[in-house]
Amino acid sequence: MRLTDEQIESILARTEPELADLDRNDHQRLAEARAVRDRLKSAFASTIAGASLAERISASLKTPPARSPRDAGRRRRAIWLTRHLVPVAAAAAAVFVVAVVLEFGAEPAPGPAELVRIHNDNLTAAGQFVAEADADRIAEHFREHLGFAPRICPHDEHTALKGGCVARFRGRKAATYLLAADDREISVVVTDEPPDAMGLTCKCGCGMAECRCFHTGQCSGCNIVSVRIAGHSYTAVGAAPPEQLKDILARLRT
Amino acid sequence: MPHLDGVLRAALALCGDRDQAEDLVQATYLKALSRFESFRPGTNCKAWLVRILRNDWIDRLRHRKVAGTAVPLDETVLAAPADDDAPWTDADDVLEKFSDEQVIRALQTLSDDQRLALVLVDVEEMSHEDVADILGVARGTIKSRTSRARTKLKTLLRAHARDLGLAGEART
């Protein structure tokens, strides 16, 4: 059968189920539409409103205060208070900021160390780890807790899913799952932060948030390889050689 | 600020320029506040904001036209090539080789409503019903519009990939 363009749109929007007996031509049309959709999505993934835009809008939303003769005295008092209290308040704020920096201002744990910590938690099934070999169920778990289902490496004779959970990476939620690949255990961590920002480096060295090269790093005896796929960073962590980690991530790209 | 990222992406799809998109978003939120009584609680707030955004964009285009300001044709905008029906088997790999800026720039070759519909459906994952409501057309029109827009974008990027030597000829 030949699907109409409208049917393809409905399948992409998941308002119609994908038929199991699609012919080669329809299968190809769907794959191409998905490829364009995913690339478009990832192209816009880095378009995030900065704090400055939110502040600019907030400032413009504030309407100027209504003025009347009755308010004159109040305004004079406000001006006096502003003139006399602002320097005192500013000094107090400066002391407070210094105190906070001294108390809590230590550098956050470097990205590679955090990734290895997540991998170690997976190995010991610590925290919220869900031991589950069914990729669909793990995907459902992520969808429920994160609002999206990351790509999961397809099961085959060399690779098996062992489980996964929602972890914390630099204070933000991240999906992670553990794979057994040729007797080696490899964690995949899915984050929003680009690999560059996680302290990983690539050969091209462009420093772009959406650079599509494999980024690599090492920490505590683990190799780390990361790559951007569809607006997320997929990072493989484990004692396996970098080539094996790249192979896992390359399979996620397809 | 609710839906700020999504509204900014929709604005960027329309303007193709980050600074202009931010101005448009700011104007959108100001207008939204001034006409908040027109928002019906329980309906889709994001769709309501995007509708205000689109109306403001149309006003700006109209104003430019009336004022006689020439809208410069971006030199880097690609000419639309002829449709190519041959299967594109390595689409995923080739598309990954384009930068985000190139993809967003290519989007600018589509009509305003085509690219807005495509971004709202594909990027913002809004339903066909909501997008139809925003653009004031039937749901079926949104399906055919997004389909045509995606095909046009695909054809354009594919041809551009060939020109840049990013991909080989299609395997048939």
Give a description of the structure.
The complex is a heterodimer of chains A (254) and B (172). Chain A has seven helices and seven strands, in the order αααααβαββββββα. With 254 residues, chain A is α+β, with helices and mostly antiparallel strands. In chain A, 30% of the residues are buried. Chain A has a seven-stranded antiparallel beta sheet with strand order 1-2-3-4-7-6-5, sandwiched between helices. With 172 residues, chain B is mainly alpha-helical. Chain B has eight helices and no strands. Chain B has helices at residues 4-15, 18-34, 45-67, 91-96, 100-107, 112-123, 128-135, 139-164. In chain B, α1 packs across α2 and α6 runs antiparallel to α7. The longest helix of chain B is centred in the last third of the chain and has 26 residues, at 139-164. Mean pLDDT of chain B is 83; it is low at 68-79. The chains are: A alpha+beta (254), B mainly alpha (172). The interface between A and B is large, with 39 and 46 residues.
State the main characteristics.
heterodimer; A: alpha+beta; Phosphorylase Kinase, domain 1; globular; B: 172 residues; mainly alpha; Rna Polymerase Sigma Factor, Chain: A
N→C terminal distance of chain A: 25 Å
Name given to the CATH architecture of the largest domain in chain B = Orthogonal Bundle
Q: Could you tell me the radius of gyration of chain B in angstroms?
A: 18 Å
The CATH topology of the largest domain in chain A is given as Phosphorylase Kinase, domain 1
Helical amount of chain A: 40-55%
Largest sheet of chain B: none
Report the total helices of chain B.
8
Here the CATH topology of the largest domain in chain B equals Arc Repressor Mutant, subunit A
Record field, number of beta strands of chain A: 7
Structural class of chain A: alpha+beta
> Low-confidence segments of chain B, ≥5 residues, pLDDT <50?
68-79
How would you classify the helix and strand content of chain B by structural class?
A: mainly alpha
The CATH class name of the largest domain in chain A reads: Alpha Beta
Helix content of chain B: 55-70%
